[in-house]
Write a structure and sequence with these properties.
Layout: H1 22-71, H2 74-80, H3 86-115, H4 121-135, H5 139-154, H6 158-183, E1 190-191, E2 194-195, H7 197-219, H8 221-226, H9 233-240, H10 252-261, H11 263-278, H12 286-301, H13 311-320, H14 336-363, H15 379-385
Antiparallel strand pairs: 1-2
C-alpha cells in the first residue's frame, strides 16, 4: 500500500525534560534545570539580597549597641544624665547645628556653581534641610534626593550632583586625615598595649600621597610630563564613569578653595566635643581631643552602619573616655566609660532631632515631588552611585 493511502499523524514536539531518549534529552534536562535554578535565584534571591544590603548596616549597629549596653548597663547611662546641664547643652547643640548646616550648604553651593551650574544658597539650604529627614536613616538616599531636587529645580544633571558630593566628601576625609596626622604628634594612642600613633602617621602620609596621585590622574600630569599619548582602555573606562564627571574639571585650586571653606565645620566638630563634655561637669584636655577625635570621625565615616551609628559611640568610649577627668568619678557612682557613652548618645540624639525638626519645617515650603526619582535615573541607580560615606560631617 503506497504512502498516499496512509494517514499521517503529527505529534507535538517532545519537551526538553522528556526521558524518552536518555542520550538525547539528558543534556536538555540538565540545561533546563540549570536555567530554572538561575532564574529562580535571580527572581527570589535578588530582592532578598537587596533587602539584606539595606538591613546589614542596621544589624551591625544593633550588635555594637548590644555590646556596649552589655558592658555599660542602660541604668547607668540613665543615671549619668543627671550630671548634664540641659540648658547649656541645648543652646550649644542648636548653635553648633546651625553653624555646620549653613557652612556645609554654603561650600556645596560654591562647588556646584563653580564646577557645574550656578545655584543660589537658598537652593542648597532648602534641599539639604529637607533631605536631613532621609539622611537620618539612609545617607546615600539623601544624596540621591538632593540630586533629584537640583535636577528638577535647576536642570543640573543628577550625576554631576552626585560627583560633586563625592568631591566634597574627599575634601572632608583629607581634613580628617590631616587632623589625625597632626594630633598623633601630641599624644600616644594606646589601644591595649600598642601605640597606634606611628601607624596613624604612616597611614596619613600614604593617604596624602594617594590624594596627590588622585588629582594627577584626573589632570593627566604623567601624560603631560612625559608626553605619553597612549590610552589604556580600562583606565579610560574608569575616567568615563558618570559618577566621576566633574573630576576632570576640578583643579588643585578647587580642592584648596573647598578645603578652606570647610574649615569652620571641622573646627566646630573638634570644639563641640570639648564643650559638650564640659556640660556634664567633666573635662577632657583639648590636646587629647585634637589627637583622638579625628580618628573617631574617620571610624564613623566607614559605611558599615547608618551614619556612623554605633561605630562613633564605641570609638568615643574606647578612645576618649580614658582621657576624661572630673570630681564626679571619685564618688564611684559613674565610670568615665559610662559617662562618655551617655555624652555620645545624647549628642547623637540632639543632632538627629534637630535634623528631623528642620526637615519637617522646610518640607512645608517645598513640594515633595521635587525630591522624587526622575524617569531617566531610577532611585536604585542614583542611590547605588551616591557616596556611601556618612558620619558626623
Amino acid at each position: 500500500m503506497g504512502d498516499a493511502g496512509r494517514t499521517l499523524v503529527s505529534f507535538p514536539p517532545r519537551p526538553p525534560w522528556s526521558f524518552v531518549d536518555m542520550e538525547g534529552n539528558a543534556s536538555y534536562l540538565a540545561l533546563s534545570l540549570s536555567d530554572v535554578l538561575k532564574k529562580s535565584c535571580v527572581l527570589f534571591m535578588g530582592p532578598l539580597v537587596g533587602k539584606l544590603k539595606h538591613l546589614a548596616p542596621w544589624i551591625v549597629a544593633v550588635a555594637i549597641f548590644a555590646y556596649l549596653f552589655n558592658l555599660y548597663p542602660p541604668g547607668q547611662i540613665w543615671a549619668a544624665l543627671r550630671y548634664v546641664n540641659f540648658l547649656w547643652f541645648t543652646l550649644f547643640a542648636i548653635g553648633y547645628f546651625l553653624v555646620v548646616y549653613v557652612v556645609d550648604c554654603w561650600s556645596v553651593q560654591h562647588v556646584i556653581s563653580g564646577l557645574s551650574h550656578p545655584i543660589s544658597l537658598r537652593d542648597t539650604l532648602l534641599a539639604r534641610g529637607v533631605t536631613y529627614l532621609i539622611m537620618v536613616i539612609n545617607y546615600p538616599a539623601s544624596q540621591a534626593a538632593f540630586a533629584y531636587y537640583l535636577k528638577r529645580k535647576r536642570q543640573i544633571p543628577i550625576f554631576d550632583c552626585l560627583s560633586i558630593f563625592l568631591f566634597v566628601i574627599i575634601v572632608d576625609l583629607m581634613w580628617v586625615v590631616t587632623l589625625a596626622f597632626i594630633g598623633s604628634h601630641f599624644q600616644p594612642l594606646i589601644v591595649g598595649s600598642v601605640d597606634f600613633a606611628p601607624t596613624i602617621r604612616m597611614a596619613a602620609i600614604a593617604v596624602g600621597i594617594g590624594f596627590i596621585v588622585w588629582i594627577g590622574f584626573w589632570q593627566r600630569w604623567l601624560g603631560r610630563l612625559f608626553r605619553i599619548k597612549k590610552r589604556w582602555g580600562w583606565l579610560e573606562r574608569f575616567r568615563a564613569h558618570h559618577v566621576f564627571g566633574i573630576f576632570p574639571k576640578a583643579k588643585f585650586k578647587d580642592y584648596l578653595t573647598t578645603a578652606v571653606m570647610r574649615i569652620p565645620i571641622h573646627v566646630s566638630i573638634i570644639f563641640s566635643i570639648y564643650i559638650v563634655v564640659m556640660t556634664f561637669d567633666v573635662f577632657i584636655p583639648f590636646v587629647n581631643i585634637l589627637g583622638t577625635l579625628p580618628i573617631v570621625l574617620f571610624i564613623g565615616t566607614l559605611p558599615i552602619t547608618p551614619g556612623g551609628l554605633g561605630t562613633t559611640n564605641a570609638a568615643m568610649v574606647h578612645l576618649l573616655a580614658p582621657r576624661m577627668q572630673g570630681d564626679i568619678f571619685s564618688q564611684g557612682i559613674i565610670t568615665p566609660q559610662e559617662l562618655m557613652l551617655t555624652v555620645s548618645l545624647l549628642w547623637m540624639f540632639a543632632n538627629y532631632l534637630l535634623k528631623i525638626l528642620l526637615g519637617v519645617i522646610l518640607l512645608r515650603s517645598v513640594s515633595r515631588d521635587l525630591f522624587r526619582p526622575t524617569a531617566d535615573v531610577p532611585e536604585e541607580v542614583a542611590e547605588k552611585e551616591a557616596t556611601h560615606l556618612g558620619g558626623a560631617i
